[in-house]
Amino acid sequence: MTTSLYWHTEGQGSDLILIHGWGMNSAVWQNILPALTPHYRVHCVDLPGYGFSQPSDAFSLEEMAHCLLNNSPQESIWAGWSLGGMVATQAALIAPERVKGLVTIASSPRFSAEHGWRGIKPEVLQAFTKQLAGDFKTTVERFLALQAMGSPTARQDIKWLKQSVLSHPWPQPEALEAGLGILANADLRPHLHDISMPWLRMYGRLDGLVPVKVAQELDVLAPQSQRQIFANASHAPFISDPAHFTQELQAFCGQCLPSCQNKVTK
């Protein structure tokens, strides 16, 4: 099935793709676009069934990655937040020649906690799945509150995220359910050694959904990658610490795209 995706594209320069997380949409990136668009052609996408993108029956992690690959520039830096980070990682595994650089933001190759692996408790994901059947809008709003939990700017972060979600149509309940299934079951850890392009992992030290301990685990599982931890951010560092976030993102893009290095502000 071919799905029509909504893209918001602006700026000039090399291509940079930004992928939102579960329950969100492409509007979450609006506050950092002014810092990025003078240097990059930025593509913000609504995942299938989210925002302005058409509903789809292609809801597995691989299917979503293929859907984006079929509708995106041939060579780009891919940056994904939370669930979007898993989609970007899957795209990098499927088509490494298409991904010049990979950035995962507050993301994990395995979101569900298990056997000593830190993450979201399975019962929390199960509760969200159950609540979706009753009132999916309330479920999304509750998840929004978790995004900023622990951040010193939590109230402002939650307000911004709500405004972003409401600026686009609500996601399809089927897309939300499928996304929770990915968060509960997907595990990319066995494949991380296959990632060959430059890879930056970005975390919030106060994140309650992707604990910073995950960063340390991935230092071992993916030694070819590099990491950046934002001391005063939780699950949405690009919202709570946008200046520092864009500085680090541009510095990484400069490594992937040497011609951009002279545009990076140190």
UniProtKB/TrEMBL annotation:
Domain spans labelled AB hydrolase-1: 16-242
Catalytic reactions on record: 6-carboxyhexanoyl-[ACP] methyl ester + H2O = 6-carboxyhexanoyl-[ACP] + methanol + H(+)
UniProt GO MF annotations: pimelyl-[acyl-carrier protein] methyl ester esterase activity
Keywords of the record: Biotin biosynthesis, Cytoplasm, Hydrolase, Serine esterase
GO CC annotations, alphabetized: cytoplasm; membrane
Superkingdom of this protein's organism: Bacteria
E.C. numbers: 3.1.1.85
Biological processes annotated in GO: biotin biosynthetic process
Pathway listed: Cofactor biosynthesis; biotin biosynthesis
Cellular location(s): Cytoplasm
Pfam (any one): Abhydrolase_1
Matches recorded under InterPro entries: AB_hydrolase_1, AB_hydrolase_fold, AB_hydrolase_sf, BioH
The protein's enzyme class: hydrolase
Keyword Cytoplasm: yes
Cytoplasm in keyword set: yes
Residues that, per the record, bind substrate: 22, 82-83, 143-147, 235
Residues annotated as the enzyme's active site: 82, 207, 235
Record-linked NCBIfam families: bioH (TIGR01738)
Subunit structure: Monomer.
Family: Belongs to the AB hydrolase superfamily. Carboxylesterase BioH family.
Role: The physiological role of BioH is to remove the methyl group introduced by BioC when the pimeloyl moiety is complete. It allows to synthesize pimeloyl-ACP via the fatty acid synthetic pathway through the hydrolysis of the ester bonds of pimeloyl-ACP esters.
Protein name: Pimeloyl-[acyl-carrier protein] methyl ester esterase
Organism: Enterovibrio norvegicus FF-454
Lineage, broadest ranks: Bacteria, Pseudomonadati, Pseudomonadota, Gammaproteobacteria, Vibrionales
